[in-house]
Write a structure and sequence with these properties.
By secondary structure, the chain is an alpha+beta fold. It has one domain: 3-Layer(aba) Sandwich (NADH Oxidase), CATH 3.40.109. Helix content is about 45%, strand content about 15%. Helix 2 crosses helix 5, helix 3 packs antiparallel against helix 4 and helix 3 runs antiparallel to helix 6.
Length: about 190
């Protein structure tokens, strides 16, 4: 008997992120993106701490980040190809949102749970973008883990870190399918 899935579950079973190279302009306008950010902010947040924030990167900011990648790469010993790939991610992206993990002091909620919440926001944003008919790619890379880059380029405070950078635009090609996990191989059922 065929499985009937609600539309939202069917979406989750078939969703695919877009390769960054397949994203092009146009991108959502600010009002549309605000709706997607609002959906992403409904992610699990133990303690209602909002341990994350968004930095929206439009064209000028993306160009500036590409320049900063080219400046920081040699200082970190990165080769030319690695630097070009990272810079081109910003140059080729029509719009991006940096999700910043911003843990709050809490006796009740450990920092790791707050970081997990920021990761959940990244996935929720990708899903909101895809469900809205746009293309999305959740990326990070060496630059997003370089303190000088994230502090200068994204205004990340010393206690913060980049959870992910979600690139957004119009998908110019269908995302390729890839092998998915064998659920039976990674699932253990316990009744007691």
């Amino acid at each position: 008997m065929p499985i009937h899935r609600p539309a939202v579950l069917e979406f989750l079973h078939t969703r695919r992120s877009c390769p960054l190279r397949t994203l092009a302009a146009p991108a959502p306008d600010r009002a549309a993106l605000r709706e997607m950010l609002t959906a992403a902010a409904r992610s699990p947040d133990h303690g209602k701490l909002e341990p994350w924030r968004f930095v929206v990167l439009e064209r000028g900011a993306l160009d500036r980040l590409a320049d900063l990648v080219r400046l920081r790469g040699p200082a970190l010993g990165k080769d030319a190809a690695t630097i070009d790939k990272a810079a081109n991610a910003y140059l080729g992206s029509p719009l991006a949102v940096a999700v910043i993990a911003s843990s709050k002091p809490s006796e009740k909620v450990p920092e790791i749970e707050q970081i997990y919440s920021a990761g959940a926001v990244c996935l929720a944003l990708v899903n909101a973008v895809l469900a809205s008919g746009w293309g999305a790619a959740w990326m990070s890379g060496w630059a997003s883990h370089d303190r000088d880059f994230v502090e200068q380029g994204l205004g990340v405070a010393p206690h913060e870190q980049v959870a992910g950078i979600v690139h957004i635009g119009t998908a110019t090609a269908a995302p390729p399918e890839r092998p998915r996990p064998d659920i039976d191989a990674i699932t253990e059922w316990r009744a007691e």
